């Protein structure tokens, strides 16, 4: 695997050496970028089919597409998973999906979130802006805005703000 990726990067490096004006190509249109796009398209196909086969836990309520930044951007929405009939404030887990900062959305972790909610947590799954539409560290700003939203809306949503946890997978782990 490492040899394959080293080879891909060498192909892009050779392109720049032979065409000094191609430096911008590496960022958006180089072979590595094209290979990454193929990989993410495959992952999207895989995740879509995987999610179709999975079911959320029974006994969980979901509030979907709540804006944590009110700008109409779908990447500034979050979903909240609760145990049904929760009557007291509960610990909160903020979940940040993976995807290399350029792929996936909050729904990819819906089954995981529902399983945690079934065990007595409130789970907040967030979207964040994706590359190449934005550049890093825009995602960090989005995540920080979601943290502020949780802090500012704890009372309204039954969050126990003394017990807030952050989780993420892959790029989401880095952002967490």
Automatic annotation (TrEMBL):
Pfam families, alphabetized: BD-FAE
SUPFAM superfamilies documented for this protein: alpha/beta-Hydrolases (SSF53474)
InterPro entries to which the protein is assigned, alphabetical: AB_hydrolase_fold, BD-FAE-like_dom, GDXG_lipolytic_enzyme, Lipase_GDXG_put_SER_AS
Keyword Hydrolase on entry: yes
GO molecular function, one term: hydrolase activity
Domain BD-FAE-like: start-end pairs: 78-176
Similarity comment text for this entry: Belongs to the 'GDXG' lipolytic enzyme family.
Keyword annotations: Hydrolase
Name this polypeptide is given: Esterase/lipase
Keyword Hydrolase: yes
């Amino acid at each position: 695997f490492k040899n394959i990726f080293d080879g891909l990067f060498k192909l892009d490096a050779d392109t720049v050496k032979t065409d000094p004006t191609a430096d911008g190509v590496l960022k958006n249109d180089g072979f590595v970028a094209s290979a990454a796009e193929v990989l993410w398209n495959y992952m999207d196909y895989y995740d879509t089919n995987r999610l179709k086969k999975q079911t959320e836990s029974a006994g969980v309520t979901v509030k979907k597409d709540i804006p944590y930044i009110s700008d109409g951007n779908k990447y500034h929405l979050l979903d909240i998973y609760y145990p049904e009939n929760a009557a007291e404030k509960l610990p909160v887990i903020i979940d940040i999906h993976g995807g290399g900062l350029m792929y996936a959305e909050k729904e990819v972790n819906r089954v995981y979130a529902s399983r945690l909610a079934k065990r007595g947590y409130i789970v907040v799954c967030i979207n964040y802006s994706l590359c190449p539409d934005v550049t890093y560290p825009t995602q960090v700003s989005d995540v920080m805005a979601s943290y502020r939203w949780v802090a500012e809306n704890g009372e309204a949503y039954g969050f126990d703000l003394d017990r807030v946890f952050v989780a993420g997978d892959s790029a989401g782990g880095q952002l967490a």
